[in-house]
């Protein structure tokens, strides 16, 4: 699921539409686009791009396009003006309200449905719950699996960590003094844990109730620590989804099982990565070696059961004072053995493998977002919780404590705002629920930005510099912090040389001592940033381009009330989105 996110800016003319091109829907200053192939038959019939419009807009544009160049379709300036003159409306709500005969109809698909969501107190799940309650008020009950000793403790966490959060302010304004009653009527806290084998540790009195009512299960529970203890990551990320799937098979009304994974389950793969599920035994190291024709090395088969036993035996063999560090080292070593960068993405990939193996006839959707950051627009711009991926770099740069960093200056940060990930999840779920093609089976969606609207490494720090020079941090004396342009180094060696040069240049002057101190802090912060974010050069150079092979599926996802043909915008115009974000 490729995403193109832009600001509302004027379109160049003419606007070229390639046969393999992007259709785009606009919704209040942001765009979502996806590859849409045109079949050979349609090319022969000179199919007009109005096929991606609804009937109302199609009537407004009677002759699209005016001319054809080979396999490209071109909209003239006049035709684009016709599209732009279609009355502006709240396209977000209209997109949600479309019925299944003219779009996927998210509201209709989810109205009256009972949901069961894990990882409910996590960052992404909160954004998801808020979006559903705000835009689909007729949704049925939403059971939230919350790690707690009992249901009373789970209720306390629901109130403190969800209902009373700033994120839900829009709902508070909508429902006023009745807001908590509305929320508690819709949200049902359930004490449990995906690490529990016996019905997720749910109290027996609730198991039958949930199993008899739930239509949709969404798994957002995970440990996202990149160097997590191997045994812990296996328990949550690998076995957790399978335990939830076992519970799902008891739900006789279940119509959808959605699992939130990560785009980085693709590990060290390069090139265009199709939206294909993993199979048991997949070994990325072997796959990569085969493509590079280095068959001389022997690669062991990935045996998940063997990995689970190995981790258990290793944990029992280490003493209390060393078990945590040893298990972390083991996770990283095993991940790299099989072609993944770290424990997190390795255990998430194995979780997908087990889901695919054990799903039976359960309809499964796997959503693989890249780096999830703060919200772009909904319910309010910039909402974020916790210390996320880009935050350490930007924060320390803004405070003047990071003057250099070992990172590829030509690299790409594949970042997607949380509200757009949630929109993609709801659209993918509605597409599956409304589809007559696939009652069972498994579908995979990549939710990423690097292919069509990449955020360059240099751009991140340019935007950061501009922001903090306009809105500087204040030191303890209330004075604005001075920051300089961050020096980027393509290797650790170059970065270390820079640190040494700054140190050698110090002659005792105040300014030189200050620069030396900053350089030393930069080295320390760089190590911490790498530890926190995994942004080593190998990961930062964005090699994975994500594509959508199932064109029909994506075409259904993007139909909306007000559709504009996407334009080939200059890169500097596309970057406006990231600068604002």
TrEMBL record:
<dbReference type="GO" id="GO:0102965">
    <property type="term" value="F:alcohol-forming long-chain fatty acyl-CoA reductase activity"/>
</dbReference>
<comment type="similarity">
    <text>Belongs to the fatty acyl-CoA reductase family.</text>
</comment>
<dbReference type="GO" id="GO:0035336">
    <property type="term" value="P:long-chain fatty-acyl-CoA metabolic process"/>
</dbReference>
<protein>
    <recommendedName>
        <fullName>Fatty acyl-CoA reductase</fullName>
        <ecNumber>1.2.1.84</ecNumber>
    </recommendedName>
</protein>
<dbReference type="Pfam" id="PF07993">
    <property type="entry name" value="NAD_binding_4"/>
</dbReference>
<dbReference type="GO" id="GO:0080019">
    <property type="term" value="F:alcohol-forming very long-chain fatty acyl-CoA reductase activity"/>
</dbReference>
<dbReference type="InterPro" id="IPR026055">
    <property type="entry name" value="FAR"/>
</dbReference>
<feature type="domain" description="Thioester reductase (TE)">
    <location>
        <begin position="117"/>
        <end position="425"/>
    </location>
</feature>
<dbReference type="InterPro" id="IPR013120">
    <property type="entry name" value="FAR_NAD-bd"/>
</dbReference>
<keyword id="KW-0560">Oxidoreductase</keyword>
<keyword id="KW-0444">Lipid biosynthesis</keyword>
<keyword id="KW-0443">Lipid metabolism</keyword>
<keyword id="KW-0521">NADP</keyword>
<dbReference type="GO" id="GO:0010345">
    <property type="term" value="P:suberin biosynthetic process"/>
</dbReference>
<dbReference type="InterPro" id="IPR036291">
    <property type="entry name" value="NAD(P)-bd_dom_sf"/>
</dbReference>
<comment type="function">
    <text>Catalyzes the reduction of fatty acyl-CoA to fatty alcohols.</text>
</comment>
């Amino acid at each position: 699921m490729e995403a193109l996110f832009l600001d509302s800016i004027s379109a160049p003319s003419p606007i070229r539409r390639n046969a393999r091109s992007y259709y785009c829907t606009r919704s209040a200053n942001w765009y979502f686009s996806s590859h849409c192939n045109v079949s050979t038959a349609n090319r022969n019939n000179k199919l007009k791009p109005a096929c991606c419009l609804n009937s109302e807009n199609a009537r407004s544009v009677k002759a699209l396009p005016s001319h054809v160049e080979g396999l490209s379709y071109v909209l003239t300036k006049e035709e684009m003006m016709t599209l732009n003159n279609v009355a502006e409306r709240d396209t977000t709500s209209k997109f949600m309200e479309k019925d299944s005969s003219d779009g996927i109809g998210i509201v209709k698909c989810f109205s009256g449905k009972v949901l069961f969501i894990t990882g409910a107190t996590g960052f992404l799940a909160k954004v998801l719950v808020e979006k559903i309650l705000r835009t689909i008020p007729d949704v049925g009950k939403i059971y939230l699996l919350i790690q707690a000793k009992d249901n009373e403790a789970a209720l306390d966490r629901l109130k403190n960590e969800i209902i009373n959060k700033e994120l839900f302010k829009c709902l508070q304004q909508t429902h006023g003094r009745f807001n908590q009653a509305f929320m508690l009527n819709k949200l049902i806290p359930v004490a449990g844990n995906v690490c529990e084998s016996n019905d997720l540790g749910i109290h027996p009195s609730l198991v039958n109730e949930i199993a008899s009512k739930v239509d949709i299960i969404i798994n957002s529970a995970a440990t996202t620590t990149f160097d997590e203890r191997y045994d812990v990551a296996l328990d949550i990320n690998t076995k957790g989804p399978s335990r939830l799937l076992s519970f799902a098979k008891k739900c006789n009304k279940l119509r959808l099982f959605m699992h939130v994974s990560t785009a980085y389950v693709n590990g060290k793969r390069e090139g265009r990565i199709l939206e294909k599920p993993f199979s048991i035994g997949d070994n990325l190291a072997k796959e990569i070696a085969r493509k590079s024709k280095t068959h001389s090395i022997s690669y062991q088969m990935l045996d998940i059961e063997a990995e689970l036993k190995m981790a258990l035996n290793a944990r029992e063999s280490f003493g209390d004072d060393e078990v945590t560090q040893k298990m972390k080292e083991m996770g990283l070593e095993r991940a790299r053995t099989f072609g993944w960068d770290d424990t997190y993405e390795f255990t998430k990939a194995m979780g997908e493998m087990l889901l695919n193996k054990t799903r039976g006839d359960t309809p499964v959707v796997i959503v693989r977002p890249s780096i999830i950051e703060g919200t772009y627009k909904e319910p309010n711009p910039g909402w974020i919780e916790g210390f996320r991926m880009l935050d350490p770099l930007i924060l320390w740069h803004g405070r003047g404590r990071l003057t250099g960093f070992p990172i590829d200056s030509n690299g790409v940060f594949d970042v997607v705002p949380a509200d757009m990930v949630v929109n993609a999840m709801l659209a993918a779920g509605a597409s599956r629920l409304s589809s007559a093609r696939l009652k069972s089976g498994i579908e995979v969606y990549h939710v990423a930005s690097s292919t069509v609207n990449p955020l360059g490494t240099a751009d991140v720090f340019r935007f950061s510099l501009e922001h903090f020079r306009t809105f500087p941090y204040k030191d303890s004396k209330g004075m604005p912090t001075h920051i300089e342009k961050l020096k980027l180094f393509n290797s650790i060696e170059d970065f270390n040389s820079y640190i040494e040069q700054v140190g050698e240049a110090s002659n005792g002057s105040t300014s030189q001592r200050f620069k030396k101190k900053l350089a030393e802090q930069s080295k320390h912060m760089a190590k911490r940033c790498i530890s926190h974010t995994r942004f080593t050069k190998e990961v930062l150079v964005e090699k994975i381009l994500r594509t959508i092979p199932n064109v029909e599926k994506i075409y259904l996802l993007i139909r909306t009330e007000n559709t504009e043909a996407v334009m080939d915008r200059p890169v500097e115009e596309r970057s406006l989105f990231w600068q604002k974000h």
